């Protein structure tokens, strides 16, 4: 099968996500900052990435580490100044690295000037910028649970009304039904585009259009109802994105990726349609969420390891069913997920490097735009938080309070085990630069604990070792840049019944790429390469045994027609 794919730079690019708070601290206050990023751009240039997705750097009181914005046109004090931003942007551009901003417009901070006005009175001109409802029987307007625990509604004294917050109560949801809100958002986006940024990662963009009936949701955890069916992929979301596209995006050459909680294939074909009327691609979450429900203690909280065959079935479905219709994004990690080598691989000393390389191969040879999260290229692992006092993430803190302290649904020990397995703080421990104090992240006291394994797992050590995970990622990136089959080849699943080996083929213009990855710590039979001649593009083993994949072995073979 052959499809003619429209070629664009962002389909051929590899993206690196920076979570600025945890990346590099230049001034010793324990918090990463923009000059810290600028200083380390040569490191990213060496890795070979094309684009940085920068988690939010706007002014924010930091209830949710910058995902609560109080001024979209200013920089968070902890991170520096607009001059620091401009310096980072121009240095990145001079190295050929593009910058994609995080666009958080489902909600603002409650300290944003619009909300401060909005809550003053029912007839304030900004009142309708947010979603206000009268009490129902003296209580919340419906049973929705916020994504960060507790009711999604907060009573405000001045008006006696409730406002909606799908996340923390310091993150009130904007009312996209109001055309003035859309005007403000589109103006702000244009302002950043004129500054010369190269795209937007759009935070929970699938949630901007709410079902205007605001009905109760199905029972979620015996306490609250689920808001997802009424806020994800809502009735006007495609209309809003098409308007955004017409008024802003289509005037620039941008990478756009929508974070799309609850997205289905059918919806993704609209968001990321090949005609380009909405976004370039979306992040889907199905492969991250295989243990939600039956496999979990409660909600997302679990201590279990996902099964490869479930993850594969989901990723293969996305590969096959978007073919020729929409573009995929590819990721294992981000600032909301635990570390991939701990979650899907094996972070023990024996298998960490091999399994990290295997997982990287498995993802980077697929069709779509790959995203690397800071530290993934070092094989950074989850850490152990010994008690809730060591945790910083609002999602973890609120869930602990609700499930352990208020409702006694889960013991403190079990909840900590869950947090150490899937909590977001695992991704947020400081970047491990070297073996000096605090991993070379800061000369001060880090805002969150450093993973103690930094003495062996760090960038300096990786760069001194030709067999490191770092150089393996560098090679994967170079291969993608060199071989159009990796970017545009059609994906064909192989061995779909095999419980241990994830295998597939990519096909383009007479080139065939065969990829096989052993997801276990045992040798596995695999005859896919027997009798095939071609060039081995990459493998995490130097030698191979016929008919067998060694523990966590990954192999990629390219056959080219003369
Ligand atoms: C998704 C972001 O990735 C996450 O970090 C944040 O907490 C929520 N959206 C709310 O903005």
Question: How are the secondary structure elements laid out?
Answer:
Elements: E1 15-18, H1 34-39, H2 41-47, E2 51-54, E3 58-59, E4 71-75, H3 82-94, E5 98-103, H4 113-118, E6 132-133, E7 153-156, E8 161-164, H5 179-195, E9 199-202, H6 228-231, H7 237-247, E10 255-259, H8 265-271, E11 281-283, H9 308-322, E12 327-330, H10 340-343, H11 352-364, E13 369-373, H12 394-406, H13 412-422, H14 425-428, H15 459-463, H16 469-482, H17 484-488, E14 490-494, E15 501-508, E16 511-518, E17 524-525, E18 535-539, E19 548-549, E20 554-560
This protein binds 1-deoxynojirimycin.
The site of 1-deoxynojirimycin (NOJ) has 9 residues, from loops.
- Pairing-aware structural class of the strands and helices? alpha/beta
Basic shape: globular
CATH architecture of the largest domain: Alpha-Beta Barrel
Small ligands present: 1-deoxynojirimycin
């Amino acid at each position: 099968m052959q499809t003619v794919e429209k070629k664009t730079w962002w389909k051929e690019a590899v993206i690196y996500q920076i979570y600025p708070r945890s990346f590099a601290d230049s001034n010793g206050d324990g918090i990463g900052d923009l000059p810290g990023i600028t200083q380390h751009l040569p490191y990213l240039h060496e890795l070979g990435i094309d684009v940085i997705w920068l988690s939010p750097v706007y002014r924010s009181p930091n209830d949710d580490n910058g995902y609560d914005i109080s001024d979209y046109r200013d920089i968070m004090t902890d991170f520096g100044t607009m001059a620091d931003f401009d310096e980072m942007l121009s240095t990145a551009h001079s190295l050929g690295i593009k910058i994609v901003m995080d666009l958080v417009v489902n909600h603002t901070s409650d300290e944003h000037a619009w909300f401060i006005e909005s809550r003053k009175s029912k007839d304030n001109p900004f009142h309708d910028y947010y979603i206000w409802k009268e009490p129902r029987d003296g209580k919340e307007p419906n049973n929705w649970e916020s994504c960060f625990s507790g009711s999604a509604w907060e009573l405000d004294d001045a008006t006696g009304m409730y406002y909606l917050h799908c996340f923390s109560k310091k993150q009130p949801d904007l009312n996209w039904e109001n055309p003035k809100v859309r005007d403000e958002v589109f103006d702000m986006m244009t302002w950043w585009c004129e500054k010369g940024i190269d795209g937007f990662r759009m935070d929970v963009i699938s949630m901007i259009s709410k079902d205007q009936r605001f009905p109760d949701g199905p029972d979620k955890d015996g306490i609250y109802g689920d808001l997802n069916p009424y806020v994800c992929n809502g009735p006007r979301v495609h209309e809003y994105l098409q308007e955004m596209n017409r008024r802003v995006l289509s005037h620039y050459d941008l990478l756009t990726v929508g974070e799309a909680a609850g997205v289905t294939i059918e919806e993704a074909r609209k968001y990321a349609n090949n005609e380009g009327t909405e976004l370039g691609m979306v992040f889907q979450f199905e492969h991250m969420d295989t243990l939600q429900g039956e496999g979990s203690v409660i909600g997302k909280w679990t201590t279990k390891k996902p099964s490869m065959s479930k993850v594969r079935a989901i990723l293969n479905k996305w590969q096959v069913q978007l073919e020729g219709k929409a573009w995929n994004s590819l990721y294992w990690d981000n600032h909301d997920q635990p570390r991939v080598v701990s979650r899907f691989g094996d972070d023990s000393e024996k298998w960490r490097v091999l399994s990290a390389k295997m997982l990287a191969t498995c993802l980077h040879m697929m069709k779509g735009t790959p995203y690397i999260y800071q530290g993934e290229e070092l094989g950074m692992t989850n850490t152990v938080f010994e008690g809730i006092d060591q945790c910083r993430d609002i999602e973890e803190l609120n869930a602990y309070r609700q499930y352990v302290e208020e409702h006694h649904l889960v013991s403190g020990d079990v909840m900590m085990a869950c947090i150490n397995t899937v909590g977001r703080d695992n991704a947020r421990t400081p970047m491990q630069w070297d073996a000096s104090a605090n991993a070379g992240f800061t000369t001060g006291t880090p805002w969150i604990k450093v993973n103690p394994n930094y003495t062996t797992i760090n960038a300096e050590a990786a760069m001194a070792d030709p067999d490191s995970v770092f150089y393996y990622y560098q090679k994967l990136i170079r291969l993608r840049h060199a071989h159009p089959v990796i970017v545009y080849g059609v994906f064909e699943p192989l061995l779909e019944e095999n419980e241990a080996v994830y295998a597939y083929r990519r096909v383009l213009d007479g080139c065939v790429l065969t990829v096989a990855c052993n997801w276990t710590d045992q040798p596995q039979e695999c005859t896919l390469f027997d009798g095939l001649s071609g060039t081995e593009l990459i493998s995490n083993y130097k030698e191979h045994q016929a008919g067998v994949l060694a523990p966590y072995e990954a192999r990629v073979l390219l056959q080219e027609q003369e």
